[in-house]
Amino acid sequence: MKTFAWRCCCALLLLACNKQHDAPFLKNKQTVAATTISKTTNKKIFIHYMPWFETPASKGTWGYHWKMNTQNPDIITNGKRQIATYYYPKTGPYYSSDPAIIEYQLLLMKYAGADGVFIDWPGTRMQYDYPDNLANSNALINKLNAVGLQFGIVEEDRNWDAGNTTGAHGDFVYMQNNYFNQANYLKTNGSPVVLNFGPITFHQPAQWDAILNGISPKPKILPLYGFTSEVGANNAGGEFPWIYQDHPTVVNNYYAQAANFPLAIGVVYPGFNSFYAAGGADGPTWQIPFNGTGTFATMLDKALASSVSIIQFATWNDYGEGTMIEPTEEFGYSFLTTMQQKLGVPYGQYELELIYQLYQARKSNAGNATVQAQLDQVFSYLANQQVAQAAALLSNLGGGNTTTGVYIKNKWLNTYIYEDNGQVKYSTANSGNQYKWVQETVNGHIRFKNLSTSHYLNIEHLYSYVESTSVPNTYYSSYWVLENYNGFTRLKNEWQNNYLNLENQSGFAQCTVVPDYFESSQWTLQQ
Questions:
Q1: What is the spatial distance between Cα 520 and Cα 52, in angstroms, rounded to a whole number?
Q2: Distance between CA 36 and CA 415 in Å, rounded?
Q3: What is the CA radius of gyration of the chain?
Q4: What mean pLDDT is reported for the chain?
Q5: CB pairs under 8 A, 24+ apart, for 169-174?
Q6: 203 pairs with which residues across the strands?
Q7: Neighbours of 102 (CB within 10 A)
Q8: Of 344, 274, 356, 285, residue with least CA distance to 91
Q9: Which end of the chain is more exposed for a tag (fewer CB within 10 A), N or C?
Q10: How far is CA 178 from CA 29, 39, 173, 195, 250, in A?
Q11: DSSP state for residue 11 in the 8-state scheme
């Protein structure tokens, strides 16, 4: 998200990949809403969410928000990719439309006490990475009811050129046709609520009259604190504060006036530590110290003590500005557990870790339809607060750490890999524990242990064949990434970025560069 000084909106240059494609309309395929988490506060809790992350798995290349202009995520140092942030997500860098990430993030929000999500929405303009961001937003929205969360749009009028009210009007037509009619869209007195981060482009009430002309139901626009006059009193429904260099004075001033707004939305943030300068990008360089979780806890106390009816947590995942509260290597679950305690949520870190185990199991069992169906049930249990049932089912699966092992079957040759005296070979037979591989997760990395010998699948010596030997659990030669390809699994070694395959039909498994469409590198993991 872009940051503003008090009553001064400085437009930041949006640097993004120029990708253009049709933005798909939202498909209303949501399931029955899940149960609601109880809290001791009666204020609505919304979390500000960025839908703008891409990886090679989604777009064939790293998106701007993971690399800016100076970083290369393909460089891995001490197990971490070089990304444009001072903080590292617990899951590693991800793409926003990944179903496993969406499920993980929404469940974490729910168990931290959230009622809904404010989506930093790009609009419908076919420019830069806006279409990708729109598609990612819709992927998130399509999962919200299954978790039992509401949503609202934070509209960016900065994404249109001055005078182009027709384009901005089209954004609201899209919202009207796809969002406002949904039962879980945020409304006030029957009117949809749309936050505006600005205004940046349109500063006259007459322009907003044109933008909202004919939109039904007509939304209430909430600009930033101090800017109702630019939207027009007949269009505005309140104001909201953000993260200001003059911390916490501006937010304190807002709370002193909050009772005067028809709808008042408070703000909570953990601190501010942007990567813009290090990333070779334009943007603010001032900081707000985190003080561990001290700043976050203080701002949450202020919001809870204020007269606002909604609290916006800023943000879930703006890594560029360092305002993320989702789990990271540096902060762990601490922001979410602080929320749980102060909001009076009857859950703690145990449930958050269980959700992470579900995410790991999704990744560890990519391509295994049987296990994925069971994990769908784990998700349903968690969405409906059936924690014990979810934990029991995950335990039976082992969260990817089974005791019985799986067969790894090649699509092309219909053969199974097995260990023979430290070498990995293949055969049409599959009798014996030497054919079974136990999936383990170590510090977020996947390893495969042979059930017969307790050796690990690896390429430590870069032989012409894949090995199965004793390897320390810190060696990347034994780490594998499971990638989905048309329902089959490809196993990529994290050290060399090559793929397990049988391309040469030499009698041994190889780990080499192989195109993804080669069936010699496609596998099925079978129980």
A1: 34
A2: 48
A3: 25
A4: 91
A5: 169/210, 169/211, 169/212, 169/213, 169/215, 170/124, 171/123, 171/124, 172/211, 172/212, 172/215, 172/219, 173/215, 174/25, 174/123, 174/124
A6: none
A7: 22
A8: 356
A9: C
A10: 12, 30, 8, 17, 35
A11: P
Exposed (0-12), middle (13-18) or buried (19+): which is 232, by Cβ within 10 Å? middle
Q: Which two tokens stand for residue 440?
A: 């383990």
- Taking CA 101 as the corner, what is the angle to CA 297 and CA 299, rounded to the nearest 5 degrees? 10
Asked whether the bond before 122 is cis by omega within 30 degrees of 0, the reply is no
pTM for the model: 0.74
Q: Structure tokens of 307?
A: 């007269």
Tens digit of pLDDT per residue, the chain (527 long)?
444 433 333 333 333 333 333 333 343 333 445 889 999 999 999 999 999 999 999 999 999 999 999 999 999 998 899 999 999 999 999 999 999 999 999 999 999 999 999 999 999 999 999 999 999 999 999 999 999 999 999 999 999 999 999 999 999 999 999 999 999 999 999 999 999 999 999 999 999 999 999 999 999 999 999 999 999 999 999 999 999 999 999 999 999 999 999 999 999 999 999 999 999 999 999 999 999 999 999 999 999 999 999 999 999 999 999 999 999 999 999 999 999 999 999 999 999 999 999 999 999 888 888 889 889 999 999 999 988 888 878 876 744 444 578 899 999 999 999 999 999 999 999 989 999 998 887 766 889 999 999 999 999 999 999 999 999 988 999 999 988 888 788 999 999 999 999 999 999 999 999 999 999 999 998 87
Q: CA–CA separation, 154 vs 325, rounded Å?
A: 18
Which amino acid, 355? I
Tokens of 178: 């796809």
- CB within 8 A of 350, min separation 6: which ones? none
CA angle 156, 161, 165 (to 5 degrees): 80
Q: Which residue type is seen at 387?
A: V
Of the candidates 30, 64, 19, the residue with the CA atom closest to the CA atom of residue 319? 64
- What does the pLDDT look like over 42-54, one tens digit per residue? 999 999 999 999 9
Taking alpha carbons only, the member of 109, 224, 97, 110 closest to residue 157 is 224
What tokens does 255 get? 């709370």
Single out the residue of 80, 79, 85 nearest to residue 53, CA to CA.
85
- Which amino acid is located at 77 in the chain? T
What sign does the CA torsion over 119, 124, 125, 126 have? positive
- Amino acid occupying residue 327: P
Give the chain's length. 527
Q: Given its phi and psi angles, is residue 166 left (phi above 0), alpha (psi -120 to 50 degrees) or beta?
A: alpha
The strand pairing partners of 407, in sequence order, are 436, 526
SS3 category, 98: coil
**Cα–Cα distance measured from residue 423 to residue 268, given in angstroms and rounded to the nearest whole number:** 55
Q: Smallest Cα–Cα separation from 74: which of 497, 500, 522, 521?
A: 497
Helices marked H in 97-225 — which ranges? Answer: 99-112, 130-147, 165-178, 205-211
